[in-house]
Amino acid sequence: MSSGKSSAIATSFLPISFHCSSTSAEGLCGGLGGSFFAASCASTGSAANTMANANPAPHLSVFMFSFLRYAPQPGRGGLSFRRTTLPGVSPQPAFAWSAVPGPPREFILRSKIAAVMQISKPRVLNLYLRLGGAITVNWGFLLLRIAIALGILILLHLSQRFWYRALWRVTSHWGRGLLRVGVRLTYIALLLLVVVTMAQGLVFGRGAFTRQSSIMTVVTGLWFFCAIFAYLAVKTVHGLERLWRWLRAAIAKKTVTRQSTAPSNPAHAETVADPGRRYFFRAATAAAGAAPFLGAMYGFAAERLNYQVRRVEIPLPNLPSALDGMRIVQISDIHLSSYMSRTQVRRAVDMANNLGADLAVVTGDLITGSGDSIADCVDEIRRLHAPLGIWGCNGNHEIYARAEDEAAYLYAQAGMKLLRHENAQITFKGASFNLLGVDYQRERTPRGQRQQTLAGVAPLVRRDMPNILLSHNPNTFNRAAELGIELSLAGHTHGGQIQVEILDHRLSPARFITDYIAGLYQRPLFAPAPNERAASNASAARAFSSALLASPSSPMAHMYVNRGLGTVGAPIRLGVPPEISLIVLRRA
Q: What share of the chain has pLDDT > 90, as a percent?
């Protein structure tokens, strides 16, 4: 390769190639058999790297990760990758990629390969496929996902091995050989079914599941949840026992040394105290191992189906007197699937209708995967009754199932409206308010870099009337408040599905993805949004100064996060019952 600062490197298996985007030079050498695969660190938008300015290709479908999609090039056997864009949002050329011709079939390898190997900007990773295109992701973002996936797989392996060995130890003391063999074979058969079901979902997606296999998906979710948490609980007790032994041994040794006398047989003292300690930790281990199974059974059979209505009054600034007392019923995260039947959805709809709301909204995630019927879910929610209509927005699972357009079509056919980067002016008792809705808002680009949420929504915000936003992702609240949206309604978190309270501290897995887990939140209206790239771009329509924002009497934007109806992963809810929200607007 020619000398100079290099910004890209590509390697492959058949053939192995090297590419320098700053010099347009390429190197190629024979490689291992198999499919062409390469990794590159490329800077986009440079003159040498023309791929960064190519137009995106149509006909998208999911590939590898949910945030990556591929597009077959018409008229050629190639693939290209690009960033998906939401309807109503213009694609950014800097993120578009198209197919590139394959490397020449000759040996080109120069002495400057070592210089190319010194990646100057190791922040971006490009993945090339034979005969086409590239995708770019952030190094840290990709490695984090890989680490999480590997951690989960390792935890699954360790937990299954632990329970497999535990069953063998327990049954080895059984006198009847036929019973012992029967129990072991039954366990192995069930474990194989569970593993096959999980592998089927990972490889083929939820679309591979049928109605007949739904019972196995439930069993799979329950078993892996119980096995992992019971394994962790048992190992925690074992760790505490080892710590106790170490502390006792250290104290005994220190006491003997301090007395400067002959050893008083500390081993004998430990033996005397051992039975009580051994029985205590044995009982604690049994309780720790059984607790996740018992909790999961309760969460599956009882709390998961314990629908609750929560009534919340929200004061809004500059609310017209005619809108004071207007009632909004909110349903979210239905997740019609093996875990949620149409009968259960119908029961929730009936409970919502009994509230006599003026407006009904559904904030995303009608289904879980492509194998679930979104038409069945729409048939149920169309039974909602509200004088001002039924409105909704798409969630992330509509994107995963590639059902965004189908959801909008079915909504329209049922006389409802799915807002996709749209707004509607609604009049109630002579006063108007502005209802906005957006598709699920991604917080990162395909490169793994943070991006601004609610892009293109500012022109839809009205300053002459209250604004209500339907956004599945609660992390849009900061930006919504900055835009001057008085009320946001969200879902997505399920309240974490599992929540444990310890000394006034609530522990929830949803903490890993958001600060807005469930319930009512507020922040100053027009306050700059943290962690937003365009947070410093102040709107010309802002009517409040920074001093007023800091005052206790400053107008506040509010968001309510619904806990949802359904579940994902494991069909369990603990401490977070499903919810139907009744929002009552009040004048601030």
A: 39
Rounded-to-integer distance, Cα 274 and Cα 412, Å = 71
Calpha distance 362→397 (Å, rounded): 14
Distance of CA 147 to the CA centre of its chain: 16
Query: What is the chain's length?
Result: 588
d(CA 43, CA 305): 51
Residue 78 CB partners (closer than 8 Å, separation 6+): 72, 99, 131, 132, 133
Cβ-based neighbour number of residue 137 at 10 Å: 22
Residue 111 DSSP code: T
The second-level CATH assignment, the architecture, of 307-587 is: 4-Layer Sandwich (3.60)
Mean pLDDT value across residues 48-68: 36
pLDDT score, position 471: 98
- 8-state DSSP, 364: S
Q: pLDDT tens digits for 574-588?
A: 999 999 999 999 998
Question: Quick one: how far is CA 312 from the chain centroid?
Answer: 27
Q: Residue 75, class by beta-carbon neighbours within 10 Å (0-12 exposed, 13-18 middle, 19+ buried)?
A: exposed
> How many C-beta atoms surround the C-beta of residue 319 within 10 A?
22
Per-residue model confidence as pLDDT tens digits over 452-478: 899 999 999 999 999 999 999 999 999
CA separation, residue 103 to residues 16, 35, 56 (Å): 9, 14, 22
What's the CA gap between 380 and 340, in Å, rounded?
Answer: 12
- pLDDT of 37 > 50? The answer is no
How many angstroms separate the Cα of 487 from the Cα of each of 521, 555, 588? 10, 12, 12
Bridge partners of residue 135, in order along the sequence:
127
| Global confidence as pTM | 0.68
Mean pLDDT of the region 549-558: 74
Return all residues near 86 (Cβ < 8 A) that are at least 6 apart.
420, 421, 438, 439
Q: Residue ranges of the domains in the chain?
A: 16-141, 174-301, 307-587
CA-to-CA distance for 333 and 436, rounded, in angstroms?
A: 19
Distances (CA, A) of 532 to 173, 219, 355, 475, 526: 62, 41, 38, 11, 14
Residues 6+ apart with CB under 8 A from 285: 234, 237, 238
DSSP for 210-266 reads -STTHHHHHHHHHHHHHHHHHHHHHHHHHHHHHHHHHHHHHHHHHHHHHHTS----H
Tokens standing for residue 15: 């053939």
> Could you give the count of Cα atoms lying within 13 Å of 134 in the half-sphere of its Cβ?
33
